[in-house]
Target: Glutathione S-transferase 1
Amino acid sequence: MVVVKLTYFGVRGRAEPIRYMLHMEGLEFEDKRISSEEWKELKPTTKFGGLPLLEVNGKVLAQSQAIYRHVANMHGFFPENPWDKATVDSICEKQAEFLLEVQKAAFEKDEKKKEELKQKLINESSKTHLAHLEKCLEENNGGKGWFVGDKISLADVQVFFLLHDQYPALALGEEVGTKTFLEGFDLLKDFVDRFKAEPKVADWLNKRPVSPY
Model:
């Protein structure tokens, strides 16, 4: 029996794509959510001083991107074809660029600069990022399915996580699932609905703990 434990803070954050994949695969795992006080004790014992951590049968893997790829490789969220696999990687890198900009704006401590970053994100750069992602989606089956191939991959998980969870909460301060920012990007809007309707995704969304982001 495989024993899996995922350790992260009490938010969706970088651990949520991992939670999505594990739930979609139907794997039982310990979803350990720690407080800031617990983190102070745990941090010195970690390899790189960061979370999330994935523990599988006593072996611990650090760094979110490494964990995403490991889970994707182990549980069918990467295509077998090398070119398609690289395409998934490229879309994930694009998602990471977009997400980093969202996070920089959301967590900027200087209030004036924070507002400037958010306005630039909302009114300018987000539209460029969304156009790039929609073009990627359209290139596969006219945008009516998934980003690469005929089944859900890590690219779909990552983009859904950004569009459904992180952008609404961090950039707009709105509820997850808000899609007003997707006006004019109909393929992405339909993609979010399609992914959200997957039975195991819907089940996770219904029962996951409420958190600010």
